[in-house]
Amino acid sequence: MLDQTTTPVLSVKNLKIQATSYPPGEKPKDITIVEDVSFTVQRGKVLGLIGESGAGKSTIGLTSMAFGRGGVRITGGEILVNGRDILKDSQSQLRSLRGQDVTYVSQSAAASFNPSKRLMDQVIEATLRHGILSKNEAKTRAIELFRKLGLPSPETIGDRYPHQVSGGQLQRVMTAMALCPKPSLVVFDEPTTALDVTTQIDVLKAIKEAIRETGVAALYITHDLAVVAQVSDDIMVLRHGKMVEYGATSQIITAPAQAYTQDLVNIRSELHSEKQENGTPILKIENVTARYKSVPINVLKDISVTLEAGHTLAVVGESGSGKSTLARAITGLLPPIAGQISFNDQPLPPAMQDRSKDELRDLQMIFQMADVAMNPRQTVGQIIGRPLTFYFGLRGSARKARIRELLDQIEMGRGFEDRYPAELSGGQKQRVCIARALAAKPKLIICDEVTSALDPLVADGILRLLLDLQAQENVAYLFITHDLATVRAIADKIAVMHKGKIVRYGPKSQVLTPPFDDYTDLLLSSVPEMRLGWLEEVIANAKMQAAGN
Amino acid sequence: MTHHSRPSTQEHYVAPFDDVTSFEELKDAPPPAKFKLTFMGKIGAVVVTFWVLIALLGPFIAPLGENELPFPDAYSEFQAPQPGAWLGTDVDDRDVLSRLMFGASRTLGIAFAATIIAYFFGVILGIGAIVAGPKVDLVVSRINDAFMSLPTIMLGLVVVAAVGSSIPILILTAGFIYTTVVFRLARGIGMDIIVMDYVEAAKVRGDGIWWIVTREIWPNAAMPLISDFGLRLIIVILFISSLGFLGLGVQPPQADWGSMVRENLGALQYGESYLPVIAPAVAIATLTVGINLVVDDISSHAGRKLSGRM
Known about the structure:
The complex is a heterodimer. By secondary structure, chain A is of the alpha/beta class. Chain A is 36% helix and 24% strand. Among the domains of chain A are: 46-55 and 90-265, P-loop containing nucleotide triphosphate hydrolases (Rossmann fold); 281-377 and 443-512, P-loop containing nucleotide triphosphate hydrolases (Rossmann fold, 3-Layer(aba) Sandwich). In chain A, strand 11 and strand 12 (298-308) form a beta hairpin. In chain A, helix 15 packs across helix 16 (396-409) and helix 17 runs parallel beside helix 18 (456-473). Chain B has one domain (38-61, 84-309): MetI-like (MetI-like fold), CATH 1.10.3720. The chains are: A alpha/beta, B mainly alpha. Strand 10 (242-248) of chain A pairs antiparallel with strand 1 (13-14) of chain B, so a sheet runs across the interface.
């Protein structure tokens, strides 16, 4: 571990990874997941692996421990850890490699901890198992790491159970677990993806400082280029298991050579400039307060916003801010206990059951998870066709023609009518959900985190489609999201929600211009920017409080 | 010293190919996935088809009648297989093969009828309980729990002892006992489905309860329920056979597989061959294994593990 020579910590040459796929009704066949990937990581350096889902980045990360998940095999190339080819290692050599020389931080810390054991016992478990330190030494080291990672009360936090700390804290405890056995390489697999932006920034800061202070080398896997730009020295862009571009971070961020990398760097620049108020409100929410039956706490407190026809109101907030509850209140799934919602200048009955068919039709919703928002046993044609029959009584060839028209509008090719949702890609699923909402010819569509589950470029395509459709159909969007980049890209008006209240509301240009209130400031300053040194600036500004996490 | 003050020495690599430059998802639809049986599934299907055919045609193609004697003129208990009695004879000198074929239709028929009854009421009550709301659900579920807590064989014994054993009674008893199980299963599956976003989407659209149950919930509950139907059929066959073995199922001189095992137990001690016991036992075993093999394929296609629900 004190190897000060120039041998790289990790050196991968011409890596080839294959797996066997079992297509139903066909013979099993080998598919290549990763091909001809080479890179090196020097001591104290961080390499960012970036790509969309299916690019092979996690698979590559795991091969640094000579591990293949779910029948994945390393079929070519060599992997040198501190100069040793680990593909030639015996099982017992691999056991001492894993969790000692190379450690792993996964995306979901919550799913990775044993809920019935105290944090400290789990943090030092691998260190003790490998006999690296004595129990007392390991505990001392763990407490030191807790302190370095900025965890509150580092002396005692180890006595807690996983459910007694927040998600961001748990992710940092997992980082401490990875660093505890003094590894030479840590693999971070999307460590901040599941976190809110204000939490993510604390974790990023902690990871970055811990890497610097311990001098460990790291692989940082993520789909978010802005995040990886903050922590890595080099970046490798992957697509379909192949190297697209590989270079110093500054090179990739400021002068990307491949068009694909350029797309990633320029993602979600402003797609849409703000429209002027036109004085025809389509949705008016006045002093709405709502709560769930089981919990005696108001999830929405005195919410008032207005949305005009053909405009987009973005409701921004972190998890638990009440933004999805607002959507449920508007759709009538959760009738508010106070306040009024008017649609088209008419008061809307609070409960869905009391609304007329036209009131229901005018207000459609697109869900976050397209996967579960479509009945897996209905074809695309049935899914899009149902609102046509239900609201307009369309049947037979008229219905077919309209389905075809809608599929064209969402820019999908031929032959999708008879396909089931499971046969579509993530972006296509969300497009079908958009078509289903559009089929009702609504005046307002509530979009609940519609791009959150998608890869950046696919999400970008969806946002462009939504904007095009808005221009064609003059439909208004209530866009619920936690992603400020999305908001910048498409909103006319913004409402920032925090703990069930609206803390800032107005036209986009106003909301995003200082002076800010504390929360909006924190939220805005926490969104990673696609440039070098952003994280350092934020840390230097040191305006951040612990954000209650 | 911050990270970026040590400039990276990584030389710049750019992929030499262009096929990554255009970003497009698949434009046209992929071919649809079809349901196909695996090799083991096919074996299972052959076995199940064989027994179903025997059950349907057995009484017509059996070489002898159910209680006919192949060798009426001789004392012929537990004879070895021979021309005229290809599986030997049983305790009362009858032809084992013919009785096995008659028993197939009786065992399968009772089990099938009972399972149908259990499914009809279980599914209606189970899905109805969730749709009707938490209060109804609570009441129906507690009553169901009370019935479920009774041991099945004991309940069967009590009913048969009270009202006597006849085929309709057997069907109704087994149907009732397994209605409680199917209720639990259907309710569990339905509860997972009713909270899905597509059900919410249908509600927001304004679709009524009938549409939601028949078009949104049922098609998704059907696949796991169908796989369970096969397993339930097996369990009912074993239940009927157990009652038969205890002498409380199908009554002599009628044949069913369970009672055949019981009445021929003597063959194990002093028969010329074990076949009078082994043959019906093998019939039960091959049918259950066969159904299981088919069900495995169906449930892996449905992509759901049923084991966690039962």
